Amino acid sequence: MKKIKYICLLVFTISFAACDDRLEIDPPFAEDAESFFNTQEDYERALIGAYDLLQTSYLNNWIGEIASDNAIAGGESVNDSRGLHQIDEMTHGGVNDELRNVLRFNYAGITRVNYMFEFRDKIDFEGKDVLYAEAAFLRAYYYFQLVKYFGDIPLIVDRRLGIEEAVSIDRTPKEQVYAQIEADLQVASEVLEWTNSVKGRITKGAALALLGKVYLYQDKFTEAATTLDRVINEGPYSTITTTTSEEYTALFSVEQEGNLESVFEIQYTGVEGGSYGCLVCLEGNAALGFQGIRQYEGPIYGDGNSYNLPTEDLYNAFDPSDIRRDGTVLDIEAFIAEQENPADIKYVIGGGGHTGYYNNKYIKRLDELGAGDNDLTSPVNYRVIRYPDVLLMAAEAHNRKPSANDGLAQDYLNQVRNRVGLSAINVTGQALTEAIWEERRFELSGEGHRFFDLVRTGQASESIEGFQVGKNELFPIPQIEIDLVGGTWEQNPNYN
Amino acid sequence: MKHKLLILLFLLSGYLALGQNTITGKVTDQASGQGLPGVNIFKVGTSEGAVTDLDGNFKIQAGADDILRFSFIGYKSKEIQVNGRSVIDVNLEEDVTSLSEVVVVGYGTTTKKELTGAISNVSGDAIEERKVPRMDQALQGAVSGVNITTNSASPGGSANINIRGISTNGDNSPLIIVDGVIFPDEGLNSLNPNDIASIDIIKDATAGIYGVRAANGVVIIETKKGKLNSKPTIQFDGYYGVQETSRKLDLLNAREYAILKNEAFAANNQAVPFANTELGEGTDWQDQVFQQAPMQSYNLSVSGGSEKTSYNVGGSYFGQQGIVGDDKANFERYNARLNFVTEVFPKVKLTNTLLYSQERSSGISEGVIGSVLFNAVNAYPTEPVRVDGRFSYLNNVSDIINPVAQIQNTFNDAETNKIVGKQELTYTINDNFEASARIGYNYAIVDVKVFNPLVWYGPGKFANSALNENLDPRIINIGELEVEQGASVFESRESYFNYLAEGFVNYKNTFGDVHNVKGTVGFSFTEESSRILNGTGFNIPNNSLDLADISANKAVGGYLNNVGSSQGLDRLNSVFLRAEYDYSKRYLISGIIRRDGSTKFGPNNRFGYFGSVSGAWVISDEEFFNISAVDFAKLRVSFGVVGNDQISSYAYRANLGGEATYVFNDALLQGAAIGRAANPDLKWEETRQTNIGLDLSLFNNFDFGINYFLKDTKDLLFAPDVSAVLGTYGAGGLAPIVNNGDVRNQGVEFDLNYRATLGKDVNLTLGYNFTYLQNEVTRTAEGIDFIPGAGFSVGGGIATRFEEGFPIGYFNGYKTNGIWQTAEEIASSDVVQPGAQPGDLRFVDVNGDGEINFSNNSDKTQIGSPIPDFTMGFNFSLSAYGFDLSGNIYAALGQEIVRNYERQSPFANQMAYNLNRWTGPGSTNEYPRLTTEGTQNTQFSDFYVEDGSYVRLNNVQIGYTLPVKWSETIKSSKVRFYIAANNAVTLTRYMGYTPDVGSSGVLGNGVDLGRYPVAKILMGGINLQF
Fold first, then answer.
1. ipTM score for this prediction
2. Per CATH, which fold does A37-191 belong to?
3. Do B398 and A46 count as a contact with CB atoms less than 8 A apart?
């Protein structure tokens, strides 16, 4: 009797102790976040992860236009991306999926960069400074997106946030965020080269141009002028002259990716398929299919979702002789009438609105289709900063800086105009400022800059119907995001 | 000397023999008069005994004054004094009160009488009677406290088992144990309902014997075993049935559609689409996709036993086709069972269980936007199915495709082969100790193949895989290369291997005749592992299903796409102890403690202790108790702590599972990024449950059991939305799993069973069970007001929430108060509703600020809950003169459903209720106007929430058993024919396909995305026994 008890006890203790050791297991064939960064390759791979989120900037292409006087939301119905329709009508509030995605995607990018910085000192290898310069640029880009949309946002640098902290973190004043952005871009611009043999890598030019833009958004015109001058004077860029609308439109084709006007492009490819279930997973540019012509059957263009439709206001703003009008805006009926068999061409008007115009810079074309679902997988790069943008920013900076240099400003402005066959402008002072602003619209519409330019230059309320001063300069923080940090953030002014 | 000894021995034996006589007799069943094999016969006060043979005959040596005790499971024991007789025939009465029923409690058994916990029992016969494809469906309405909701009624579809409410935002499925082997709940389809001998469901904290995995309750399934000393019995059961949809939605016909669309377009100042509205009925797309479909099942088994071995072996086939999708939706299952128990050495018993199953299934897209039924409901009736010899394109709606074409283009097959087995050795050391050691395993291989031909549903359709209607493949550019993307085939193989090794010792002893002590101590080690490998091959020649195999791919270089693999490994190491004591079976107390070490959790929280204390008082055994109507009365109390560890593996640490893909030099490069964020302090959910119960047996034929339970679950495990600043929303990123929030379930449940013999050959049983349940989230994480759940796909936004003070997954939206009738009414109202026009829904200003706020949540409130207040089941069976009638009715009352399947596309078809839309002042105060213009009417409001209460006749059956003298002519001991109907009647006010809208995600409960309707089945069958 006793023996049995002892045997039981013995068997027990042995099995017990032996088996507890067997609980010390690691996930099979899986890399672990804490034990990463052991080789140069690990660092390079982490950097690719940080680049990945750039591709979510298709949202900027939409919101920057739809919020402005350039475009309406469009789509299948007003309930199709309701958030975009609200932004279109300036009725957006704390419930907005698109704005929430802007917040989520850019913080995902920031977190991936910060993860790299957290392990910066683990090993050393040649080229590490370049790698980190690119990473710093990416962090600056993501933070700039956020500060542009939302103003004050939590600034997290060089570390990952723990889940405890994520429910108590505060918003950081935007001045501090801008300071970090500038610091990151300065590092990037010092370390990086003007050219990189690898298409798609960040260059010194991209860093300086973005830094110039960041200065401009803060009305730091002197710094902006100096910085942008370097891009113009030292950089490998030059204007490309186009003589027809088709040639101008072709500047946005796959073929002309990385051309002489290309300062910073977000890279896309059509080789990988995608689905609506995960837009953040896409390797193609979702903007083009969304902006395509609804159920279109005919030459040149592919069918799409009729989002982000240019307004008549934009179309009419152009001088009819400006090749950029038809290069930028597709007048669908006019286009069909010019074709061989107009009656065979079909398309459908979406319930979300119709203007008769489509974004001709970023639109699904038959010769640029990606893998299925090809509404989502366009291979066309998003030109975030083009050389004409740099010239116009530099012109504005020189025109608006305390000791204005209107001569140089005119020169930059006219470089942009000359290359599309338009005459030079010789005005100065405020008239020149306005000419530059107007030129920005003609040159850059359809690319997601307009709304932020209007806000930055104080023109939003006069140009955008429903725009409320003191409110709509910033987008509201999605209410759910406020809730998720414990309700401690104050909503942006006048959104409650 | 030797002689003397022999003589002494002889004398002694002679002396002994003098007092002993050989007594023979036969034990029979009182009702049928048939002999009962395997009845235990003991001489009271000794350990001497005998067992009846196959015919019920026995032989035993006993003295003239000895008392013999006859006992047999399921029968009332009898004690008979020999009184000098040499032949004693005994008939045993079936135990109607079932107090002696054996209940499996985990690593041991007890009887209903001695039970201290809250355990429900369902017999195999009750399962079999219901004629369901899947065993858990037969539990619906069978016992109290167990709620079954359906995820999909399609062939091979799944259901959810919830024991005593939804206690977590994460995984609510109970621990399922088949013959001692852990069985994943998603694998329940592989189990043949006919193989089941009994199901015991541990509902209270006495499930603590299973520790960290027992918080959602434990379902213990035993498969059929043979009986010792019984003749081989061959049993054949088969049925064949025809299924059809229990419901179709009431949609607009072509004429109604044209009129309403014209009205909607005109309201938005758009050209009306139909010049002529006299278009008749048009196409009924539902008729095009629904059809009658067969369901059939055949079982053959042999069971029996010799003196030392009993066996039960069998094989079966089950086949079910879908009521949508022709032969594209199909489920077939083959089962084989080899169970035997044998005494390998004296006192050493080997128990062998071996279950093999093969499942073959194919299905169509269901339950999501883009599914076949979604398309059938939204396709417009003015379009014929075919145009110009091809399927019509439905050009006016971009995201809706021809559902008939969709079915034709669907090709998928899955095959699961599975072996579940257990080998157990039980050594009876002596009268007090018994030691058991067992190995259980579960090995499954799942092969899936999906063929995606080149298809063209019309211009602009997202589902197109071809470039054009000629089915030319798309061309993609990889660098300079142009690559064709033809038809593709996806194949995957998943293999799962789980095993457990357990050893335990059971002890029992009685001291001083009244002090009964029982103990169980043991260990358990479990490992669960998986391997998954998959890939897609492109350019299958000829767009042909015949060549749909990766081996046939003609992709450049034979490259596979989307190649993936994954491995899983988890372990659980446990020890447990149970001690029981009772005084005269009158006062019972039991304690359980279990220590679990689980690899689901990190070193910070790897080990946990769980357990319970329970006690019972059999009041009816007290001397003072003399209520004659009450045969038995027992009060039970239990309290304990159990855990839930059902989360993905290694969730406590951050992995690099994120997608990190970017384009350099026009080529994709893969990097690394964090997938799930880490939470090193992750621990199990903990449920504390108190149960107070009372069991009564009345008037010899009523059984009544009632329980009150209070179940607090804290530190819920799930991955809620987290702040964007955590950075987890990149591709492949996952929010961390956290312990967050508390939930309380409390309720009252009771079971009432009545069993009566109304006359010779007339038997009646009635069963009623009732569950009242209150579910409330008692805490959300600090700073978080609510966790958003399922989306509202009609108008966007969130429909369900996890929020403190409300039931889990309650519906949150706008309240409405009729329809705005006139512009004056809008203008003079105290409440400003932006954009309101006559005919729009009139929302309620909940926060009283004088304005309806659409851009924030301040006017939203509770407008429903998916959790029923009451569920109940009613079971009946009546047999008389060879005829039998039985049935089951289930009711769930007090829950709501979100109507979430209507598509707001201008040309999509609509439900017929829109005929009652607002057309002018006074026309209706219920249904808003129709317009293609954007309105706030599609905001999530109570307009989209319907009463989901329902009552369903789950099963009704009429059978006839041939008189024995007829069946004997074919040498059969039993021949029974029957016809049965499943789901014949459903009473509900809900407009959708089915009110049984379960969801595998808790916050999706009651959100109806166009749920596959449950099938009505009419079947006929036969039972044969030889």
1. 0.94
2. 1.25.40
3. no
